[in-house]
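Tutorial handout. Part one gives the primary structure; part two gives the three-dimensional structure as tokens.
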Amino acid sequence: MKLKSTISFSFLVSVVIVFTISILAFFLIPDICLEKLLFVLIIGFLLVFGLILGFSHLYIQARIKGIYQMMDKSNEYVLDKDEKRLAFNEVENEVIDWASNRQDEIDRLKQNEEYRKEFIGNLAHELKTPVFSVQGYILTLLEGGLEDETINRKFLMKASKGIDRIAEVIEDMDTITRIESGILELDLIRFDAIELVKNVFFELEENAKEKNINLLIDNKNGPSVFVKGDRLKLSQVFYNLITNSIHYGNENGNTTIIIKPIKDKVLFTIKDDGPGIESEHHIRLFERFYRVEKSRTRNKGGSGIGLAIVKHIIEAHGTTITVSSEVDKGASFSFELVKA
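Part two.
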């Protein structure tokens, strides 16, 4: 109620009350003095007007306070409702995140199970081929071939190569198991990488001659390039990569080690001019026993773990190995070492 309306209402009620009292006093007290009556009416009017105005003001204040209290309760209700909705949304998001994480975990477990099955199958195949080969040669010798001088030594040599193949697989499995378990520690020293590569070339010289492959070093940085790393482990890295290059390179081709210093690092690239590798296989090349063409590459020997070992040793040195290859354009494997 507005202030003007409140005053008008109080004035009107006061007039009515005072007029009623004056009429009653005029008839009930015939000999009353008019001056006294007028004085009493004025005083009565002021008192009644003030009381009515005061009570009206208090009544309005009480009503307004009640309205504000109702509004506050309404706001609290809306706020509580919003808070409950927010809490519900948070719980819902947590449930969704939990379900998503569990689904990711399930997908990883399924993927790991597929890898496990594939790994066991590949390991069985890697061992089965040389085992059956050795078994066949020995049975032939036992059934009379041992007395035949034209074949006995030849078959024994082939059986020996089969056993060497089995030993290679087992040794590589032991190596990669120790690497992945963190048991294998690095002995970091300063050494000449050129000398190391030449030593590996010397070990693989006969293998390269069988396919008439040239082993080359592309280095424009002097006779020596010193790096920091585990010389023995990095020797295995170069040995595995160069061996792969010879195995899968073309006859009468080249295997080239490109050495290029870059600031405080030295970039090594092992490059061949073989048939190359399709890009779809690049991401899985460093998995244990993964073969680009299983039926063909198994015949080329190797344990199937060489690149996996290379990857772990390079990563243990705080760097990564990459592959670059196109079909019919050869393949290149690159990694960096710290310059010393």
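Part three, for discussion. The helical segments are 3-28, 34-142, 152-180, 193-203, 205-210, 231-248, 294-297, 306-316. Residues 27 and 122 are 127 Å apart (CA to CA).
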